[in-house]
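Sequence only, no structure available. Ideas?
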Amino acid sequence: MQSPADREADLDLLIIGAGGAGLVAAVSALEAAAGLPPLSMPAAAAGPGVDVSNKAARPGAAGAKTAPVPTTLGAGPAPPTRGQSPLRVAILEKASSPGGNTAQSAGMFAIESPAQRRKGIVVSKGEVFREKMTYAHWRVDPGLVSDCLDLSGQLVAWLEARGMRFDNVIEFLREGEAPRVFHSFSPGPPGFIGKTIVERLMEECLQKGVHVLCDSAAVRLHTVGVSSNPGGDRPGTHRTRVIGVTARQGEAEAHFAANAVILATGGFGGNSSLLERYFPGHSDVFTLNRPEVAGDGLLLAEAAGAGIDHQGPVLLVTGPHHYPWSHVLTLLVRRPEVVLVNSEGRRYSDETLFLDYHTEAGNALSQQPGKICYALVDRALIERMVTSGEIVSGMEREAGGAGAWLANLEAELEAGVARGTVAKGDGWEEVAQAIGADPSELARTVTRYNEFCERGEDADFFKESRFLVPLRTPPYYAVLGRQGFDTTLGGIKVDRRMRVLDRGGIPIEGLYAVGDCATGWEYENYNLRHPGSALTFALCSGYIAGREAAAYVARLPIS
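Reply:
I predicted one. Tokens follow.
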């Protein structure tokens, strides 16, 4: 086969990854190439989403009788020429259908959005910027953070113009004390807005002539050395330019020449080797990360000479949780009234931590043996929770059906006992034996905790006194909670324009990285006071990179 270096460019832009970041990048690039101003609204909202369950995405509106997208560009209709389309764009997707982790996203973060304005919610950019930068110890890119905050609310409008309406805006942690920035479509049980975003943007991409090639895993970036760049920054500096991609399609390899490439492959939660490299001990914990999201972009960029931020990747930890067995019991183990102990029967944290700092609660759990815990409750506490119906967080209101989950609590506990994920006993010795803890250790823990409740002060971890509830009424329960994570964030070094930087900090011409594989947005921990911000960064960075790539291609001479 010919190498891309020996061929005339087949494509202006090749995007690797058909999740939210990649699809937004494609639409953004086409808008820019067509001369539309930033964040232009379509003349009419998109129709119903297309079915993206087929192994090959199909162009046109849902139900249209059109030929499947070819497995390779040379196997079917030729890519559009510049006379047919303002930009020749294709997307390679490793999985058999588009979506990536975006398809599992329940909501997005935004400020100064039309949805907030409709509800009279005021959250200022300055407030969020200061909080975000302080939380990250100023180890993120302030310019990129500022740009994405500006874009976040505008992208809500951009998506609403495509038929999506964000009618639900909540805070995710302690109600009344966190900013209301989490946007979803409507109140009620948890749903995945990301799936709809993917469907609508897929439809738009296909209608605009973008080739989306599923079951196509990029395995190599092709680059050449150049002495200057058309962008004009640092002229004369020796640098690298991307010229194409090799992808594996089944047993065969296909080569694609491209003037620009956007890496939109997501994080590396599906790659146990990378997890051990960056987060030792977390390669075997439960994850909601899709297995195909395995760090392909990071590995491709690293092999092409990109700079990698080895200190900056973030593991979006969750926990404690009771997945995949029971959503109701997951909400229970996160309640502030329970007593959390590790597998040895020792209490290890303030149980209200989850109300204010979701990720920190996961961090505390990650330090425990086996990364597991048990939430201790008794009959009196269960009855108190069910009777009061109190909701303690926005997350609980959103995910628990406004308290409806409490009606099923007792039945779910007994189901857990039958399943073996909940221990039950008339005494703490019986419970300790069931969870493998030293009975005397667990008894000491509960006795000490009950004494704190009597005094109204937690002398160990200073839990708020209103959540100090003694455990004295059998039967007693110990509900298993375990560590997990949603995805990873960061890795590839980029600048404010989402250009990938080489190891010397110089942009690699024509190469961009967006979404979970790019640095600059989060550092060390994911701040759940700004829930949905991983999806928002995917969309914002994809939007920025799409316009940047289109501008870069426009400056190149036509072959």
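DSSP finds 16 helices and 17 strands in the chain.
Hope that gets you unstuck.
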